[in-house]
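#onboarding

Welcome to the new folks! Below is a worked example of what a typical request in this channel looks like: someone posts a single protein sequence, and someone else replies with the predicted structure as tokens. Don't worry about understanding the tokens yet, we'll cover that in week two.

Example request:
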Amino acid sequence: MKTLLVVVLLTGLLGMAKTAPAEDKTLATVPSVDLQKYMGKWFEISSFPQSFQKGCHCTAAEYSMTDKGYVRVVNTCRKDSADGKAKVANGKAFVVKGSHNAKLRVQFFWPFRGNYWIIDLAEDYTYAVVGDPSRKYLWILSRTPQMEPGLYQEIVDRAAKKDFDVSKLQMADQTCAGK
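Example response:
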């Protein structure tokens, strides 16, 4: 099963690398990100479905700074149901120079890296929206497993104005959060 998860994640990252050229600057990010404030746990509220997340429930990511200057990424989810077996994927994120920490390149398997552009961020770092210039990837994240519906709709509306096809967003199952 571990091999299957590796293959699924690798396939998704290969797709990201092919469809999301780093030179595409048409997607605006937030002006800057305080990485210390960004560190910690984030819950997936919704996202565009991706093959490497198929069957995932209660998806979350934990970010922490390393003494080597990159961000440690630990993605977790429960496979096939909220009571399913926990799966973990470990990776690294590297800040893109000149982006004021708003653009990162995430790597789960060397040498493949995918774009992780922070395109919307609450002033108090309670929610974040991560996208890719190809607009094939979008995640709405929150510090809590649920988000107030009005706020969620405002975030979705802003993503639509950035030319994301928000009709593809699927709500994440967070019923097992805290278990």
